[in-house]
Design a protein that fits this description.
By secondary structure, the chain is α/β, with parallel strands linked by helices. The chain folds into three domains: 78 residues, Winged helix-like DNA-binding domain superfamily/Winged helix DNA-binding domain (Arc Repressor Mutant, subunit A, Orthogonal Bundle); 103 residues, D-Maltodextrin-Binding Protein, domain 2, CATH 3.40.190.10; 93 residues, Periplasmic binding protein-like II (D-Maltodextrin-Binding Protein, domain 2, 3-Layer(aba) Sandwich), CATH 3.40.190. Strand 8, helix 8 and strand 9 form a beta-alpha-beta unit. Helix 2 crosses helix 3. The two termini are 34 Å apart. This is LysR-type regulatory protein. Keywords: DNA-binding, Transcription, Transcription regulation.
């Protein structure tokens, strides 16, 4: 196989992050035809389509998923070389890193991040910041937080960079012994039974609510709460069900023996989890290191929650 043109690596990574030729071009600052041409060269080089069109957009092939970690590592190595004059040594750093996370984000991201910090940056610290959705962009610009990680659909524009980590989905939760636990959940049952509904501003739950409203599917919201954290305790003592991001459902079902997962009775939408940062800190060596750790730990290949 001839040597790969290294200029094509950013295109491979951008296509995986955006799953769209036009958005990949926007991310890289090049035209759509240029991205299409680069994809053609990548396909020819690897003898694989790499990305195929589906009802959910462009999806990577197994070959592409196998290539992405090495491609990200290559870009990270280049970036580390470019920011090397700032001389950041994670093994010696006592820096406190700050990440904007939702309560769901803390459950999804913090356990593995803390494990990675213990191994790679044992003297550094981590702070989770829970901010109103409208304040996240300003916090990134001012350096109040280094990254925003999770579902932040309104963070865009030329001053912000974003990197797609993985695509996530929804799952239903109910208690073991629930009258609906013995058989697959039907749409009629889903709509008729009582629901515990999380109302969280600007978060992934809005994707679910908009999807149901568009199809005129009305659930019976017996309980509305702004918090996910109380759900397992509420569900374990009632006949309510909840529809939540799969990661949090998986965590609750793993940690609470009384809670079980049930597949929803209709194909609910999926959403991308990303990391965001301000262009002011794009070349900051410590923030670049943190971004590399996040991308290394959370991606399609390593998404630990069953699809």
């Amino acid at each position: 196989m001839p040597e790969l043109d290294l200029n094509l690596i950013p295109y491979l990574v951008a296509l995986n992050e955006t799953r769209n030729v036009s958005r990949a071009g926007d991310l890289l600052g090049v035209s759509q035809p240029r991205v299409s041409a680069a994809l053609g060269r990548l396909r020819e080089h690897f003898g694989d389509p790499l990305f195929v069109r589906t009802s959910r957009g462009m999806e990577p092939t197994p070959r592409a998923l196998a290539l992405i970690p090495a491609a990200r590592d290559a870009l990270a190595s280049i970036e580390r070389g470019l920011v090397a004059p700032h001389d950041f040594d994670p093994a010696k750093s006592t820096r406190t890193f700050s990440i904007a996370l939702s309560d769901v984000g803390e459950i999804v991201f913090l356990p593995r991040l803390l494990q990675a910090f213990a191994e790679r940056a044992p003297h550094a610290n981590l702070r989770s910041a829970s901010l109103p959705h409208a304040e996240v962009g300003r916090a990134l610009e001012d350096g109040g937080v280094d990254l925003a990680v999770g579902y932040f659909p309104d963070l865009g524009g030329t001053n912000f960079f974003q990197q797609r980590l993985f695509t996530h989905r929804f799952i239903c939760l109910l208690r073991r012994g629930h009258p609906l636990a013995a058989q697959p959940l039907t749409l009629e049952q889903f709509l008729a039974c009582g629901h515990a509904v999380v109302r969280a501003e600007g978060r992934s739950q809005e994707v679910l609510e908009q999807y149901l409203a568009k199809r005129r599917l009305a659930r019976r919201a017996v309980l509305e709460t702004p918090h996910f954290m109380s759900l397992p305790f509420i569900l374990s003592r009632t006949d309510l069900i909840a529809t939540v991001p799969h990661a949090i459902g998986y965590a609750y079902a793993t940690e609470h023996a009384s809670i079980m997962l049930v597949e929803p009775p209709l194909p609910l939408p999926r959403f991308d989890l990303k990391q965001h940062w301000h262009r002011k800190f794009h070349n900051d060596a410590s923030v670049a290191w943190l971004r590399g750790v996040v991308a290394d730990l959370f991606n399609d290949a390593l998404d630990e929650w069953p699809k």
